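Justification of computing resources. Each target in the renewal requires a structure prediction run like the one illustrated here; the chain below, 232 residues long, is used simply to show the kind of job we budget for.
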Amino acid sequence: MPTRSSEPDRSAFGAPGHSGASRRNGSVYPESVDRLIDEFSKLPGIGRRSAERLAFHILKSPAPDALKLARAVEDVKRSVRHCGVCFNLTETDPCHICSDDRRDRSLILVVEQPKDLISLEQTGMYKGVYHVLMGLIRPLDGVGPEDITVNDLLRRVEDPNANSGGVAVREVILGLNPVVEGDGTALYLGEELHRRGVRVSRLARGLPSGGQIEFASRAVLADAIQGRQSME
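Resulting structure tokens:
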């Protein structure tokens, strides 16, 4: 009768020194898992531990679900681009906002990034078109007007054929974040747009609806005082 060995079956684990686990940087994960964790950790706000949790979620998911994620990433990189008119994210050119003849194309709301456009659009209160700067003027970082889409905005103002639907622009609304770079960019744009004879306005700033004065910062209160409105 054969004698049962007390040694574990090492064939299930691989020969010593030849395991399937990667030893890169001291890691014990398989190399493909290590690469997945590395890629997840490059995402904004994702640290190494969060990247590991995401990677193991993918590993535990059924193969069709995991491959759906992979295809979604591939599809978005292949099909999504910036609108040739306003630089919004789109799968068609021009985007659905620029091509909507129900919108007031003579009114342009300027924002910094596509996510700002999405936030404003979700209110359902704005019926004009947009222009996405894709950044702000940051002289200390070497970012000038030519590095973002300022020239494209000015071209839309100067030439109706460059604007949505070939409509002449009558007003530009500056919807930039109230930070130093946002205010500097707004000042530059205001001067350039005034020089071209177009009306310029900016989104109201100050106390938010439902807010309380005692909890507002000095900057918010200063904006509220300067931007006060008549009740007549």
